[in-house]
Design brief:
Length: about 475
């Protein structure tokens, strides 16, 4: 019995020692790359393998070690719920600064069904110059769309843009210009613009100020020449296309021109024709080709993205939908635009890169889009732009025309945005028509400029002296 009790006691001591040993082992969580959020995480079977280079007809160019996404921008952990960057109240969206405005405008315009090119920053700066002359509820709705709480904040945002977004190098250019074109007179009445408004445009927006007579060929030519000059001839505006009504009070214009080379150029000898699967059918395009070693590709739900760096201005992000996914399914909301540009899961690959060369121009009327985004008063006679001029006025139209070109050397792009302001007090009176036909005897007088009668007479038979 005594021996049995000793054996039981020894067993208990061994069990206690084993339990203590287990408790001393540190707890290690095993990492996993499989994101739990199904919205942005790519399905495992959809993860593409690096494209195998053609074995015939093409030797891969030298490997170029680049990192398309910056190292200080780590992969986003989609295991945590993504918080939208937009504040919403019902279906109404609150814009917080330029980034939100760019996403909102892009989502409202880009349909994914055709070639389109938009410069959100050009629209932003043009509308900001208009907002500087607004008061009351008109100012409030413009500031709301532009994502600023007051004119002081807007002033700082735009001033900062123009200060930092300027590049003038041998292979790189980013050039932004603003201008104000003011009516000399309307309906024979002189027009006065507020000195404070002109000062703000000159100081913050570095804007030119020009006086013209709208409705004349001269005014149209001056404005067309200015646009052509500051878009470096990439957008050739004909004066005949600028039909300014005599009731035009002012025209505000922003231009932006960008030209930059790839940080690593594409070898033109490697460019070759290949098939591009357009929605309307297969077409042949010239594809630039390059092989990038150890590069980052970003994946989302139904798409992957890749950045190609430029020399000085920044980079170009190319987003490729998965096979069977159309662009319109990826676009449509500001949050979708933000996801395509800034969110996803990063993975490393050796990338066989093919980009079609392309160039085209685009022109769009933005009045309806901006009205739908909240500019209600600004387009009506109820608008208050008393900070701009003593003449009552409203926005008549907003248009943008742009150009984009991509080839082996880099990217060239240009755009102008034009906001036309019309006076709401210019209403020509329709008078009754009167026939003044000298078909019977009449009297005449020839007078000097100071009213002195030089000749005077009557005519009772205009054929008598023949």
């Amino acid at each position: 019995m005594k021996r049995l009790l000793c054996m039981i006691l020894a067993g208990l001591m061994l069990l206690t020692a084993a339990a203590c040993t287990v408790d001393q082992i540190p707890h290690v969580e095993v990492p996993t790359d499989a994101p739990s959020d199904p919205i942005d995480a790519p399905e495992a079977e959809a993860t593409p393998e690096p494209e195998t280079p053609d074995e015939e007809g093409f030797e891969e160019p030298p490997i170029i070690p680049i990192t398309p996404f910056p190292l200080d921008n780590p992969p986003i952990d989609l295991t945590d719920p993504i918080q939208p960057i937009y504040e919403t109240e019902g279906t109404e969206m609150t814009v917080n600064g330029y980034a939100d405005f760019a996403n909102l405008l892009s989502a409202s315009i880009l349909s994914g069904s055709k070639n389109q090119n938009l410069s959100p920053i050009s629209v932003y700066l043009a509308l900001a110059m208009v907002a500087e002359g607004a008061n009351g509820d008109t100012q409030a709705e413009l500031l709301k769309l532009l994502g600023c709480k007051d004119l002081k904040e807007l002033n700082g945002v735009c001033g900062g843009m123009l200060e930092t977004l300027s590049v003038d190098a041998e292979r790189s250019t980013l050039d932004i210009h603003n201008s104000l074109w003011m009516a000399e007179s309307i309906g024979g009445q002189a027009v006065a613009f507020r000195p404070e408004y002109l000062g703000t445009l000159a100081e913050t927006y570095r804007s030119e100020a020009n006086v013209v007579q709208f409705g004349t060929e001269s005014a149209a030519k001056q404005i067309a020449d200015w646009i052509n000059k500051h878009t470096r001839g990439k957008i050739n505006v004909s004066p005949n296309a600028l039909n300014f009504d005599p009731s035009t009070l002012a025209v505000l214009i922003n231009t932006i021109y960008l030209k930059d080379g790839w940080s690593e150029t594409f070898d033109p000898a490697a460019t070759e024709p290949d098939t591009f699967h357009a929605y309307t059918g297969d077409v042949t395009a010239s594809f630039m080709r390059r092989f990038d070693k150890n590069s980052t590709v970003r994946f989302g739900d139904g798409w992957m993205a890749y950045r190609v760096w430029l020399n000085s201005v920044g980079y170009v992000t190319f987003v490729l939908p998965d096979e069977g996914v159309s662009l319109d399914k990826l676009l449509g909301t500001p949050d979708a635009i933000d996801k395509l540009l800034h969110r996803g899961v990063d993975k490393k690959y050796d990338v066989s890169l093919r980009i079609p060369k392309f160039k085209f121009q685009d022109k769009m009327e933005l009045t309806e889009v901006l009205s739908a985004l909240g500019l209600q008063l600004s387009f009506t006679p109820a608008a208050d732009f008393s900070g701009m001029s003593d003449a009552p006025c409203c926005i008549d139209s907003v248009i943008q025309e742009s150009y984009i070109g991509v080839d082996e050397n880099g990217v060239e792009a240009a755009a102008y945005t034009m906001v036309q302001m019309r006076t709401t007090a210019f209403n020509p009176v329709q008078l009754e028509k009167l026939d003044f036909h000298l078909t019977r005897p009449f009297f005449y007088a020839i007078e000097s400029f100071d009213g002195q009668v030089l000749f005077i007479g009557t005519v009772t038979n205009p054929s008598a002296g023949e």
